[in-house]
TrEMBL record:
Coiled coil stretches, renumbered: none
Residue intervals of the Phytase-like domain: 28-254
Transmembrane segment boundaries: none
A UniProt-annotated Pfam family: Phytase-like
Protein name: Esterase-like activity of phytase family protein
Amino acid sequence: MTGLPITPGLIGATNEIALTENLQIIGYSNDGLDPEGIALDHEGNFWICDEYGPFVAKFDKKGKLLKEYATGNGLPEVLKYRIPNRGFEGITVAPNGKIYIAVQSVLNIEEKTAVTAQFTRIVELDPLTGKTRMYAYPIDRENYNSPKDAKIGDIFAISNDKLLLIEQGKDKEKKMRNIIYLVELQGATDISNLKIDGKEPEFITDKNKLSTIKFASKTMIIDLRTNGWKAEKAEGIAMLPDGKTIVVASDNDFGITIDVQDSENQDTEILDYTLYPDGSLKHNNKVAKPVFRIVPNPDAVESNTQLWLIKLPETLK
């Protein structure tokens, strides 16, 4: 397993190009994964989900790869329409052994549904039979400028059909939302092969037509931001055995950032530049000679990992 991007043209490719600190192209790896979630099953195996493919990989306790699932090869093919780098973002093992994996954002089928979809998908995988189901998790559509602005941070199974889930993203006022929901899958429609008007339900915005689908139900447990959470991303969640204590962790992106020094162009960021095959850099189509440095993130909130323990008044069931 490597962290390199998948070869362009293959399932799982994001068309990213990996570079060294000197902006030299590293190359690709078809064993590349971008792990975003980890869970332990009853036999001590580790399940990892990835946002490239999206992929799911099962490893034994010594790190040996036992099985890999890919779109069209163990996982529903429609998942290939994930927004690049927004494949799977959370994975959990239910008490009955079934695996649940959350797609980070809405699917973008035919490059059209990132702005129409009303839900993202939660995948159920039975590791004994290999069978899968998919459920629609309704995002808080009214809070975002676009459906694609909603992101799942992580999930955790507290029972065979109930999950804790983090939904987050910038709202219409560009302010971050970080909310923990209790999501119930019992009775939700399996949308694996469901079409409406001959299309995947992500195309549909008419609520009357979507009423034929029973979405997963959701109940807010806590709004992290209104309770003092300041980090941008909450990307880890678990429930302690007492059934009352939720553990939440932030993603500090390694506690680093990129400093740009450019005497010809002021107040620029690395994404303001284009790297050409001959190694030259341009800013606004003009040759530039910036200096890029990887430095500690000066923002203490973002550079330090936040770890919260939240004690609920009653046990979640």
